[in-house]
Write a structure and sequence with these properties.
By secondary structure, the chain is mainly α. It is built from 20 helices and no strands. Helix 8 crosses helix 16 and helix 10 crosses helix 14.
Length: 476
């Protein structure tokens, strides 16, 4: 390889005046990579970032999408059932789960950024095949059950507005639409739409502000954990943990960080100090993206519980069995308008369908990433079907099996809570695996977990292990 000095064109920023020295294998940082690294280095810093709103918005990607997908129909159903059953007593879970969620998702994103492989791909390269296939099977099962619950909730919500529509044809039509969207809409377009689909959930925040309440008591309920030792209360705590720290989010964010680097002109070559510096700069984007996405998810979480506590629970509706009951929580948002009940149902349906269109592709897609990486198939939403047949085949299988689960007679609203409990159980071994990878210096190099990440990660693992035991005992 030639080692002549590389001089970028005059208008482009130059990182160093001298040519990069060759790496141990003789490679050098090429001109395009140097220009890209220089662009990163010239980003506005500190408060100046927020004076460049378009720049700030551009850093929002996988983390924001992951946070938005976390408030899927399963999440909405679980939060609503919690507020209806126990009022504001479980508001504290939104606060205390936030740092745990941020820590786990940052680890997953960092693994994808540093290794340039999804979680299953990393496990396949560095651990046993038994461990790999166990992780992928657990992921596929949990995701497919969640897909089924979300599809059922979307169907029930649409039938609020179209009660004459037969359930089975509508359910099949929704599943087919979501599947076609995943397979045939280019990822670069779909990813942009994903950032805005969850805006319909702002209705819960506005409604929560409208109904108000005793804000001092709400703050107290948020800061001070309240525990009741009964099956219903403990099961909902487990469900809240499972719908917040979910297996599909682990695999999705790691894989999407890989695709994000493929989409951007990433720094691939050069000496390790150059590569490490580039990764450190990208980690700042990843952490800001993750923090913003998880915070948005938990704020929505808090307001859905607060809203349903102040409407449903306050009016003695303590068990949600239908979509119509859940929709009543939004009536204060449209109070005084003609047909307020119908408008509230329409807003609720929009929230469930919008987040479902967001979450079902993420659920099926994260399962597909895991399976494809386990078998070494071509994978990625940036690829067309002919380039990744196995990957899209898994997406289709997960969606269709989830569709079939709706015909076993489970109430669609109750199924949302059950799927969250299953997520909590499945997440335990997967989280242990993530901690193992994130602390493996041969995989992560200088970017292994720090002390704080390990402390929070172990606390998360212990909490989820206890939750899993509680859930299993409650289900037996």
């Amino acid at each position: 390889m030639s080692h002549d000095t590389i001089e970028p064109p005059a208008p482009e920023p130059v990182v160093e005046q001298s040519a990069p020295e060759p790496d141990g294998d003789g490679s050098a940082l090429d001109g395009d990579s140097r220009r890209h690294l220089a662009t990163i280095l010239n980003q506005p810093r500190g408060a100046a970032r927020f004076l460049h709103a378009p720049r700030f918005l551009r850093i929002l990607g996988p983390g924001l999408i992951t946070g938005a997908a976390d408030d899927d129909p399963s999440g909405i159903g679980t939060y609503s059932q919690t507020g209806a059953a126990f009022g504001p007593l479980l508001l504290w879970t939104a606060l205390y789960l936030l740092p745990l969620m941020i820590c786990v998702q940052e680890m997953c994103g960092r693994i994808g950024l540093v290794t340039r492989h999804g979680l299953a791909g990393v496990v396949r390269r560095h651990y046993s095949r038994k461990l790999l296939f166990a992780a992928v099977v657990l992921l596929f099962i949990a995701n497919t059950i969640n897909v089924g619950a979300d599809l059922g909730a979307m169907t029930a919500s649409i039938r609020l507005l179209l009660p004459w529509a037969p359930r089975t044809p509508l359910l099949i039509a929704i599943a087919c639409f979501v599947l076609l969207l995943e397979v045939f809409v280019p990822y670069r377009i779909y990813a942009q739409a994903l950032k805005f689909l969850a805006l319909s959930l702002l209705a819960y925040i506005v409604t929560g502000i409208i109904i108000g309440g005793d804000w001092r008591q709400l703050l107290l309920d948020t800061l001070v954990p309240h525990i009741q030792f009964n099956s219903a209360y403990l099961t909902l705590i487990v469900a809240l943990i499972g719908t917040t720290i979910s297996p599909y989010l682990f695999f999705w964010q790691a894989s999407e960080e890989v695709e994000e680097q493929d989409k951007r002109n990433r720094v691939d070559g050069g000496r390790r100090p150059w590569r490490d510096r580039a990764i450190k700069l990208k980690l700042k984007r990843l952490r800001a993206d993750t923090l913003f996405g998880m915070l948005a998810a938990e704020v929505t979480f808090w307001f859905i519980i607060q809203t349903t506590a102040g409407t449903l629970h306050a009016h003695h509706i303590t068990s949600i069995q239908t979509a119509a009951q859940a929709a009543q929580a939004l009536k204060p948002f449209v109070a005084g308008l003609p047909n307020a009940g119908l408008i509230a149902e329409a807003i609720f349906a929009l929230g469930i369908v919008g987040t479902g269109l967001l979450a079902v592709p993420v659920l099926a897609g994260s399962a597909a990433y895991g399976v494809a990486e386990a078998f070494g198939w071509h994978e990625g939403l940036a690829k067309v079907v002919t380039q990744a047949r196995g990957f899209y085949g898994v997406i289709a299988a997960s969606t269709l099996i989830g569709l079939a689960l709706n015909f076993i007679g489970i109430n669609p609203i109750s199924a949302l809570v059950y799927s969250a409990v299953i997520n909590a159980i499945v997440a335990v071994p997967l989280l242990a695996l993530i901690l193992l990878v994130a602390n493996n210096r041969s995989i992560m190099g200088a970017f292994v977990n720090g002390r704080l990440s390990n402390v929070i990660g172990v606390i998360t693992l212990c909490c989820m292990a206890i939750a899993a035991v509680v859930a299993i005992v409650a289900l037996l």
